[in-house]
């Protein structure tokens, strides 16, 4: 069955920059991107013409990264390919119940508390993401939405938060756990906490995962997510 409410997820970056994240956007004509310290993602109209690509080049500057996220459009031939990575977009079906993870259930009552993170925690968040590489994370990425974390002996060892925010949806992202703290159910606890917060606002959670990351995909599917579609993450260098 086609989930009509999910159609905005075909352009999650553009929908976010034109809506919930408009205050974090930079624009030139029909091209849009985030403030550099927040995120690198760019957006163009559905079928961009030469003028649209020129506007994006003007917005970013010469020789800069155009992180097109999952946009399938091909840039002009003088835009140098930088990366291409196969991925999956997952959603939780409408009306589904919270997922259950046995390890999370066993540790939730006795594990360390899930806490909300803010600007004062940015140095630790940057350190954790640098060590675990969950995806791009910059000094102001936390302004995209709520971020939650788990500390052990005062040190941040796991976190998850919100990234893209198309109308009616919120992307769970930056799910990561320090190597020394893995196997304790932290990721499951944080994702479930994010799901609860998102759904309490009347929104629906979604996320992206690298196709080769079978462990992360298995966790998300245990927590009630299903694959909506395959995507390709691509980046180019402006001429």
Q: In terms of topology, how is this protein built?
A:
Elements: H1 12-17, E1 25-28, E2 31-34, E3 42-43, H2 50-60, E4 65-67, E5 80-91, H3 102-107, E6 114-117, H4 122-132, E7 147-152, E8 155-162, E9 169-177, H5 186-200, E10 204-210, H6 214-222, E11 226-237
Summarize model confidence as the mean pLDDT. 93
Bulk shape: globular
CA-to-CA gap between the ends?
A: 42 Å
Helix count, DSSP H or I runs of 4 or more residues: 6
Q: Which structural class best describes the helix and strand composition?
A: alpha+beta
What topology, given as strand order, has the largest sheet?
Answer: 4-11-5-10-9-8-7-6
Share of β-strand residues: 25-35%
Low-confidence region ranges: 102-107
Biggest sheet descriptor: 8 strands, mixed
| Helicity level | 10-25%
Q: What is the C-alpha radius of gyration, as a whole number of Å? A: 18 Å
Number of strands: 11
How do the SSEs run, as a string of H and E? Answer: HEEEHEEHEHEEEHEHE
């Amino acid at each position: 069955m086609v989930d009509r409410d999910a159609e905005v997820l075909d352009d999650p970056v553009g929908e976010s920059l034109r809506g919930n994240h408009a205050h974090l956007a930079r624009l030139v004509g029909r091209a849009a991107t985030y403030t550099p310290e927040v995120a690198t993602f760019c957006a163009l109209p559905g079928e961009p013409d030469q003028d649209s690509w020129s506007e994006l080049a003007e917005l970013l500057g010469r020789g800069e990264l155009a992180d097109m996220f999952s946009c399938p459009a091909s840039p002009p031939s003088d835009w140098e390919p930088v990366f291409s990575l196969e991925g999956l977009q997952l959603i939780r079906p409408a009306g589904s119940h919270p997922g259950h993870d046995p390890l999370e259930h066993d540790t939730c009552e006795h594990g360390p508390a899930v806490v909300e993170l803010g600007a004062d925690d940015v140095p630790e968040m940057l350190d954790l993401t640098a060590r675990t590489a969950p995806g791009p994370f910059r000094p102001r990425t936390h302004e995209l939405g709520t971020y939650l974390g788990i500390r052990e002996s005062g040190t941040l060892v796991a976190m998850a938060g919100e990234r893209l925010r198309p109308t009616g949806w919120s992307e769970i992202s930056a799910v990561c756990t320090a190597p020394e703290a893995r196997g304790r159910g932290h990721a499951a606890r944080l994702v479930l906490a994010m799901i609860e917060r998102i759904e309490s606002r009347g929104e629906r959670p979604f996320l992206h995962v690298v196709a080769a990351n079978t462990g992360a995909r298995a966790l998300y599917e245990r927590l009630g997510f299903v694959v909506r579609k395959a995507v390709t993450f691509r980046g180019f260098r402006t001429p």
